[in-house]
UniProtKB/TrEMBL annotation:
Official protein name in the record: Polysaccharide deacetylase
Pfam families (UniProt xref): DUF2334
Organism: Caulobacter segnis
InterPro entries, sorted: DUF2334, Glyco_hydro/deAcase_b/a-brl
GO BP annotations, alphabetical order: carbohydrate metabolic process
Highest taxon above the source species: Bacteria
Length: 258
């Protein structure tokens, strides 16, 4: 954590980060933003934060009619990677059974065909994504199986701990800046940072120093408080690109000094 971080960062995270530094390690953080559909003012604001804080960003994009325009907009951002965010981002779960794009009755062949068609749409738009992000983080078993027969090499959902998906890599988000119960709104500094402290402690105690912690944002849903906190967080922490996560490259413990 950089020394210019707000006092609340030091109060909540300081002891845990000192334990990491004493052990000669630094947390691995990466950043995923969901639901990109088209160029927009919130997207411009997100990309500006990425540039200003030198924070690589994985942008989970939906295969909408505006996908080619979105790809062209992101081409000018070398630190931004586009991921596939579902087939059409349409909820197909029965009423009252949550949200998800793939239901239990879907055949593996159908899921394979949907995935293949969606990836081809991204190729036609001018990008070659290798990461798939299921909408609502609902990772159906058929998706993992279908990914093995595609150009997708990794899947990103939401998880407490590292999860294996066989020969398909998992790179999950763990730390959502928004709280969705009752409608999307800023989770709050204490809730967010306390969760980060628990995630850090879990990795330290299990010796999983290089297991990434995924920051999750949704630029279209941010209010002023969310944008302000995200700016502070990116200023305080070093974010790494997905391509550099495995194996984790060494970092100086001094980068974590509280």
């Amino acid at each position: 954590m950089r020394s210019a971080a707000p006092l609340v960062f030091h109060l909540i995270l300081g002891r845990e980060l000192r334990l990491w530094a004493k052990a000669g390690h630094a947390p691995v953080l990466w950043w995923r933003d969901d639901d990109a559909r088209a160029p927009s003012e919130p997207l411009d604001r997100l990309l500006e934060l990425s540039r200003r804080h030198d924070a690589p960003l994985t942008l989970a994009a939906i295969a909408s009619p505006h996908l080619p325009t979105l790809v062209r907009r992101v081409e000018a951002e070398p630190a931004v990677e586009i991921a596939v965010h579902g087939f059409k981002h349409i909820n197909r779960q029965p009423p009252g059974q949550g949200f998800g794009e793939v239901v239990a009755e879907d055949s593996l062949d159908w899921v394979r065909a949907q995935l293949r068609a969606t990836v081809m749409a991204f190729h036609r738009a001018g990008t070659q994504p290798t990461l798939f992000v299921p909408p609502w983080n609902n990772l159906a078993p058929q998706l993992t199986e279908a990914a093995r027969d595609s150009s997708i090499t990794a899947i990103s959902a939401f998880a407490e701990d590292q999860v294996s998906s066989g020969d398909v890599a998992r790179l999950d988000a763990h730390l959502d800046v928004l709280r969705w119960k009752g409608g999307g709104r800023f989770r709050g500094r204490w809730r967010f940072l306390s969760r980060l402290r628990r995630l850090l402690a879990r990795r330290r105690l299990s010796g999983c120093w290089d297991e990434p912690i995924g920051l999750l944002t949704h630029h279209l849903d941010h209010d002023a408080a969310t944008w302000a906190f995200l700016d502070q967080f990116l200023a305080a922490f070093t974010v790494r690109a997905r391509q550099g996560l495995t194996p984790a490259s060494p970092r100086e413990p001094e980068a974590l000094s509280a």
